[in-house]
Write a structure and sequence with these properties.
The protein has 728 residues and is of the alpha+beta class. It is built from 16 helices and 41 strands. The protein has three domains: 9-130, no CATH class; 150-467, Peptidase S8/S53 domain (Rossmann fold, 3-Layer(aba) Sandwich); 474-719, no CATH class.
Length: 728
């Protein structure tokens, strides 16, 4: 889906006002007409409309009820029985030509007014939907925003680390439902497991692009009809190569996966359908998409389909659109563990997405750059499940062996489809909710100005490690109060979200791993951090039922850390005897890469443990760094400070006491407010921060930057019996 996305244009939506008024009167008299208002309006214009009808299943004691979690074979049996038992209503309505589906209890037909009313009045018909036109427009002009070709976009979602673990999607297939595909492109050569085309011909203006005009067509060449000089294969080729491409040099996300290409786009010569673009244009519709999803469901097991990609869309919606007939197909694929990745749309709206991304069971994807910035073109709403790169993506072209650059949420969706294939290879037996949940837990939380929510940008290797149990937020050999000679361990928790939350700590005996007690923090404000000593945690911890030892007998702990908010975790140790403050943070999957935010930086009040901040410019131009100082306990802003200009590739280091002398508000916070620490965030510079502490008693410099990601899980209610105050 590209920047110039059209709103959905319902087929036959132009209707006569007089007929509409009459049709609305009929709605009250016919039970099923609550779903067919749009169809009645369409009939009022042209005298006929294309509709999709959901037929009631299980109408007799012998007939099977259709269920989304059933196998394709059982679903097909339920559909056959439903069509047999409800065929009478089609005959009564004089519907002679209709299209049925294999695993969906749907029938599609063209109907006039009398036929529509007869069908709507029948108890055999559960719902009626108007077939709607949907589109994508291709954008090859690079966005002015910072983008990411595949060499940058794929690493930005933590994929190469998954490849190094042996997971590249091998043994899985991604179904891409789009327009045509240049399957001879080196990135896609040998990838296709089959081809299908469900492009429609309708009336005098819409013509199928299936080879020979035959639709549906399941055969070699069905999805790769790429006329010389045409654009029919531009979008599908590009999207597919992002998901599965591999020419030995350019790699898509699931570079080891196979491809099921499905063409659903027709050529439309109707100027009204194509507006504001000139006619002819390419369109698809909800019926073609339904055909394609039905086909995917039939062959999901045969082709080992892990994910489906849909990068086209219709109308902009501000809530879920679960009245869309495609929800049933997405539900049944989801229950098979298959994600249907759908682009969120390119209107730049906050709080809205386009259909079918508004279906609650779809895996809806917005676009970011290759960092943590939401693309201005992307829709951004709580209905969006994931963010992924979608700006200036250089991927396979529809002609030759070259690459072409496109931007949009169309490009973001196949990043997620590819990620799902990798996850499915790594965890073939995992449920949909397990994979979905771990990708959301380990993703980088992206925000947009003016929005009160965040959306995770996927991090594939981190999700794999998390689900393997190698990133449980474990801290090892944390010093308890029974070993005072070793010093005092402190835990630091930093809340990067927009809502307050709590942290839950499970204390385990280090040598045995047995659970001894649990402790839950008080609420930590948004943007705030908390530093808590192990002595405080031990004093206020709740003993675990049946614990083999008491806290008094434990010298050191292994800690499992979980929180109700995304953020960071540190373990620091103060050695009283040596007078050294050190960072002992370590994580099972490596340290968090976010070095633009550093918590608990010492103020000048801690005179023998001086914090120094290093600013490194990795950008291509000289820039100034702006540091925002906030109160660790409340998250409230105190002041900002701007550095001198830092050359490209250069860095500067400055002690925090020196910054305080230049910023009166910081001096006031220290002298009048007693501030011992600050949280510091970087902006205005392409680069990173490093926080080091000068232990002046011993002349030792220690890097305090490393931090782990907090794992977001609900805090057990039983763990909230006792809490402790937060230490500054």
């Amino acid at each position: 889906m590209s920047r110039r996305m059209l709103s959905v244009t319902p087929l036959f939506v132009r209707w006569r006002a007089a007929f509409a008024a009459a049709a609305l009167v009929l709605l009250a008299a016919v039970p099923a007409l609550a779903d067919v208002g749009d169809a009645l309006k369409a009939v009022g214009r042209d005298g006929h409309a294309r509709v999709i009808m959901r037929m009631r299943t299980g109408q007799t004691a012998q007939a099977r009820v259709w269920a989304p979690g059933d196998s394709a074979a059982r679903q097909a049996q339920a559909v056959d029985q439903a069509i047999d038992s409800t065929g009478g209503v089609l005959r009564a309505a004089r519907v002679e030509k209709y299209r049925r589906f294999h695993t969906l209890p749907y029938v599609a037909a063209e109907v006039d007014r009398d036929q529509l009313l007869t069908l709507a009045a029948s108890p055999a018909v559960e719902a009626i939907y108007l077939v709607e036109i949907e589109r994508h427009t291709e954008v090859e002009t690079p966005s002015l925003e910072k983008g990411a070709n595949l060499a940058l976009s794929v690493p930005s979602i933590d994929v190469p680390a998954a490849w190094s673990m042996g997971y590249d999607g091998a043994g899985t297939t991604i179904a891409v439902i789009d327009n045509g595909f240049n399957l001879s492109h080196p990135m896609l050569a040998g990838k296709a497991v089959a081809e299908a085309c469900f492009s429609h011909t309708f009336g005098t203006t819409i013509t199928s692009r299936c080879p020979g005009g035959v639709t549906p067509l399941i055969a070699p060449g069905a999805a790769s009809n790429c006329p010389t000089g045409g654009t029919h294969c531009d979008h599908g080729t590009h999207v597919a190569s992002i998901a599965v491409g591999n020419d030995g040099t350019n790699f898509g996300v699931a570079r080891g996966a196979k491809l099921l290409p499905i063409d659903v786009f027709s050529i439309d010569t109707d100027a009204a359908d194509c507006s504001p673009d000139p006619a002819p244009c390419e369109v698809t519709d909800s019926l073609a998409a339904l055909d394609a999803l039905d086909y995917v469901n039939q062959h999901a097991a045969e082709f080992k389909i892990a994910a489906v990609n849909i990068s086209f869309a219709g109308s902009l919606r501000d809530g879920f659109c679960d009245d869309d007939p495609r929800k049933a197909t997405i539900d049944m694929l989801r229950q098979k563990g298959i994600a249907v990745a759908v682009s969120a749309g390119n209107q730049g709206a906050t709080g809205k997405v386009t259909a079918p991304g508004c279906i609650s069971s779809a895996t809806t994807v917005g676009a970011s750059d290759n960092g943590t910035t939401v693309a201005s073109l992307s829709n951004f709403a709580t209905m969006v499940d994931f963010m992924a790169p979608g700006l200036n993506i250089a991927a396979a072209s529809s002609t030759g062996a070259g690459l072409v650059v496109k931007s949009g949420t169309s490009m973001a969706a196949p990043h997620v489809a590819g990620a799902w294939a990798i996850m499915r290879q790594a965890f073939p037996q995992a449920s949909f909710d397990q994979l979905d949940g771990v990708l959301k837990q380990t993703g980088l939380q992206l925000a947009r100005s003016g929005a009160t929510f965040t959306i995770p940008k996927i991090q594939v290797a981190a999700a794999i490690q998390k689900l393997k149990g190698k990133d449980r937020g474990i801290l090892n050999n944390v010093v308890g109060q029974n070993f005072p000679t070793l010093g005092q361990s402190y835990l630091r928790f930093f809340n990067t979200s927009t809502a307050a939350g709590a942290v839950n700590v499970s204390l385990r005996d280090a040598p045995t791993g047995l659970l001894i007690a649990t402790w839950t923090s008080p609420q930590i404000a948004p943007g705030a951090s908390a530093q808590v000593s192990m002595q405080t945690i031990e004093t206020n911890a709740v003993p675990a039922a049946g614990a083999p030892q008491t806290l008094a007998a434990i010298g050191s702990y292994n800690l499992d850390i979980a929180s109700t908010f995304p953020g960071y975790l540190q373990h620091v140790l103060w050695n009283r005897t040596a007078g050294v403050f050190a960072n002992l943070t370590s994580c099972g999957t490596g340290l968090v890469s976010d070095a633009t935010m550093i918590p608990n930086v010492h103020s000048s009040a801690l005179v023998t443990y001086v914090s120094r901040i290093r600013m490194v410019n990795t950008g291509t131009f000289a820039s100034r760094a702006t540091l925002a100082f906030t109160d660790p306990g409340t998250g409230t802003a105190i002041a900002t400070w701007t550095s001198p200009e830092i050359p490209s590739g250069g860095s500067i280091e400055i002690p925090v006491p020196q910054i305080e002398t230049q910023v009166p508000a910081l001096q006031t916070a220290v002298r009048a407010g007693g501030a011992l620490q600050f949280n510091v965030a970087l902006s205005g510079l392409s680069g990173y921060l490093q926080h080091v502490v000068d232990n002046q008693n011993m002349g030792v410099m220690v890097d305090m930057s490393p931090k782990c990601a907090l794992t977001v899980v609900p805090v057990p209610a039983t763990a909230i019996a006792k809490t402790a105050s937060i230490e500054k």
